[in-house]
Specification:
13 strands; globular; 5-stranded mixed beta sheet
């Protein structure tokens, strides 16, 4: 840590997207690092740089149509590589599986609730525990930008209609209130972090609606050569988050899926010390869906994820991953 204290760059610069949720995540990270290292407490030790990304600017199309989820990190990682920022804070589910050369995923914070939530409009009924989707009227229009959510929703309820909705959490809630959709789907973690958890009419079990790999986890990237920062970040990392993220991202890498491919991955470490991983692959229209579960030692997280991904790939129709 003395190496950090002697760094000539002060304050340390943190890069993030400009949305309210991204800024919350960046400030949460700063509170964690300041709590661990008292000499870094206080706003004067950090400089926040909110960057506009292509994924934020282009709101009228799905990510698959404009280049994939890496568009939420491209400009931030460019700022990291050219020295404009020292840290970059991300929602892990929005971070590409293979990072650019010279950048490493140095730290993962404790996972928030990984489940998906449905925010219901006034035309929806009351949710029930036995059938959480029964609250959606026949033929209801649901807004989501995620083909993963779309495929699972349509597999369970082929009568539903799905249309793309982009933008930050507040924008999506406004469009729902204005009557553009009967319901919308969001990550429950984002609602909780923004103090909006009461907006969730239904929170779906992660085994039934398999989340995105990394959902609910905040990840911090740095330059690979910045050893001092990497050592500091390693000290505040949550080991369970690293284990489950390793399994989920290995699953994603094995499937080599794009934003066009509905893929889900959710790992848990239970009281018995074993890691349990659920993986899913589907067609966007819900006509095919394959879900499998495996378990093993935490130390084998990467192998577990890779092998489950290989298994799903082998038994999926060729057109899904073509």
């Amino acid at each position: 840590m003395s190496e950090i204290a002697e760094r000539p760059i002060a304050p340390l610069r943190i890069g993030t997207r400009a949305s309210p949720l991204a800024l919350w995540q960046a400030r949460h990270f700063l509170s964690r690092i300041g709590g661990f290292c008292p000499m870094l407490q206080g706003a004067s030790n950090f400089e926040e740089t909110a960057l506009s990304t292509a994924g934020d600017r282009i709101q009228d199309r799905r990510l698959a149509e404009i280049g994939g989820k890496g568009l939420f990190a491209k400009e931030i990682h460019e700022a990291l590589l050219d020295g404009r920022v020292d840290f970059a804070v991300h929602s892990l589910k929005d971070l590409e599986t293979e990072l650019p050369p010279g950048i490493v995923l140095a730290c993962l914070l404790k996972r928030e609730d990984a489940r998906d939530a449905i925010v219901l409009g006034p035309a929806c009924g009351d949710p029930t525990r036995d059938d959480p989707l029964a609250c959606l009227p026949h033929g209801a229009l649901v807004g989501t930008a995620s083909v993963r959510r779309q495929s699972q929703l349509l597999h369970a309820r082929p009568d539903l209609r799905v249309e793309t909705i982009r933008g930050n959490v507040q924008t999506r809630l406004r469009r729902l209130r204005e009557g553009e959709f009967h319901a919308t789907m969001l990550a429950f973690a984002g609602l909780k972090r923004l103090g909006l958890e009461a907006e969730a009419g239904v929170v779906l079990d992660a085994e039934d609606m398999v989340p995105a790999a990394g959902q609910g986890i905040v990840g911090i990237t740095v330059r690979a050569q910045d050893i001092a920062l990497r050592e500091l970040l390693a000290a505040i990392e949550d080991p369970v988050a690293r284990a489950v993220a390793t399994a989920e991202r290995a699953l994603l890498a094995a499937l080599d899926g794009s934003c066009r491919t509905p893929i889900g991955g959710h790992a848990r470490v239970l009281m018995d010390g074993q890691l349990y991983l659920t993986g899913l692959i589907a067609r966007a229209d819900g006509s095919f869906l394959l879900r499998r579960r495996v378990s093993g030692a935490v130390a084998d997280a990467e192998r577990i994820g890779r092998e489950l991904g290989d298994s799903l790939r082998r038994d999926s129709p060729a057109d899904i991953l073509s």
